[in-house]
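Lecture notes, unit on protein representations.

Consider one protein chain, 671 amino acids long.
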Amino acid sequence: MEKSSEKYTTWACAALVGVLTLLHFVSLESDPPMHFIGHGQAQLTYPYHLTFSARNSILHGDWNPYDYHRWDVFKNSLVSGFSYRVFSVAGVSRLTANLSAVLLHLGGLALFAFGLLKWRSKLEVWLTLCVLMLNTTLFFYGRLPFLENGLIFLSGLTFWIFSRYYHKVWGLISCGVVIALATLAGKLFGLLLLAPAIVTIVYIYRRNSLRYVSYVLAGLAIGIGLYVIIFYGGSFAVMLSYYREQTTGLYGLPPGLLSLSNFLIMIFTFGGESGLIQFSPFLFVLSAISVVGVFLSFNVTSPHKSEMIPIVFCLGWLIIGALGLSPFLYRPIRYTLFLILPSSALVGYFVKQALDGPLRFELNRKWFSLGACFILFWHLYTQVWMIFSPVFEKFKSGSEFLPKSALIAFVTVGALYIWLRRPRRISSRISLTFIGAIILPALFWQGQYFASGLTSSGHYLQRYNKYLTEFIAKDAVISGPYAPALTIDNDLRGVIYSFGLTNIEKNFFERFPVTHIVADVSNMKRARADFPQLKSAKLLARMPVRNATIDLYRVANTGTALTIFEEAVILLSRGQGDSAVLAFDQFLAENPENLYGQLYRSASLFATGRIEESIASFERIAKSNSDDYMVHSFCGGYFSAKYQDTGISRYKEIADRHLKIVKDMSPALVK
């Protein structure tokens, strides 16, 4: 590639990365994107568990106000500590919590890029960053304070230290210490970073590698020891208890380790059922082809070249990382995020090679190369099949397709063997045309996700945070899986608890002064099974967001005084419509913008027999909030219930009209 062309291409890539970096900070307080519907509720529940202790410290002067140590792993994470620093400077809110995630996330990507820059060209590094930042899954998860963003930062730091200081004893020891932090302050599977470090050391030092590996292991031991002493007083008990419960306790032994057939199924379906491939299929295909290209153009067993150190590290990181995560039954999309870093580096390497001139392919270590390519193609074809499978049938569909994808992979490798019986060269024009045919649709595909995710998500969680302070008393204590998400924008107190855990604390409601629960229907069903006293909990409000409905319950016999809103809801539930109307009028006099107060008042009018006035009130609210699916969801659900009770077709017509609007806004909200 000519120097002038390379310079302009570098500038173009840098400009794109700059724009994508700025997009990370756009509308940070908005809800998670709609397009992740069907892939779990972690985005709605989990992120603010990690910032909950830091929030408590800033707002209430105590990291753990109720002395509840079950979640100390969250408190002692990098995300928690860093969010505390951000909260100290900028205050506590959803925006600042998400800002802490973005800063960690971008910091990790920057460290990763600087690690590459030690040995690779500037253009290759910018290409890598383009691929990284164009991945909308990485982008949108990078805007929420997940543990995985702490892991991305520590992974980037590990890579940077290794790339620059692998030849120094203190560098290898430091690398081991950071891997320990990635494991304990990031995510447990951060330990997988040890494998690519060892593989690369073997690539560099060959027969003399044992001594250098021992330095990394020593650093790992030092890091683990210091972390446990500093944060757990030398006791592993709380930490091990949490990890045991969250792994084998909830999901049993990893199915991929129970038999060879299970192992193969779990490996070759890895990524497809979690949605990792669904949101960036073109970039995934390019990543797979890049890995095959690396195997066919570079002999890992030849004497080491310094410039190939980051490529070997990334190759080991990607392959061993995928193997390490694949055996587990629970493999949410966020677990795979840190694998996008090495795969993007391999894409950057492959594209840069194509830009520099003809690509040369040959079968180095013939049977090893063919075997590796067979496995990669087998995985690729299985994933492509799973992309087009229904959301909840991807795992089953992929498992059943394995024999066919293996046959297709075998034929592909056979053709590859025939074609590469002698070394081949592919001109830059052909290879770049092929790469462009993948990248151009990828830009369009990812652009749609960027546009919808940044403009159509809404701010419903932020609104519910405000409503909660109007619904319940200042001295209320909230618990349930959505409690951290519904208190990040207010100063209400709470206690983290997730229903359905293996270690059920039967005395939980005796130990902690919980007055209210926020949970979805399935979680509340489990809660009532585990805690019979919740059977008498009173439903106060149903708050739809994305494809979930968060229910607010008041726990019976808590001693906390009823608010006007709670009294009004109870009056309405008893059929005392006239009294409920007066109570909601009083509530709205203090909170005139509260849409729930307006909707409940309309329902109270219906309960008094003022049907036409009630319907007119509902329609007036809906017309004034025509693009608000919370309002339309309430109206649709309310009149559906009235139709079920009375059989009056007019109510069904009203319900269907509102539910159609809801479905148009988000199909998953209406089943």
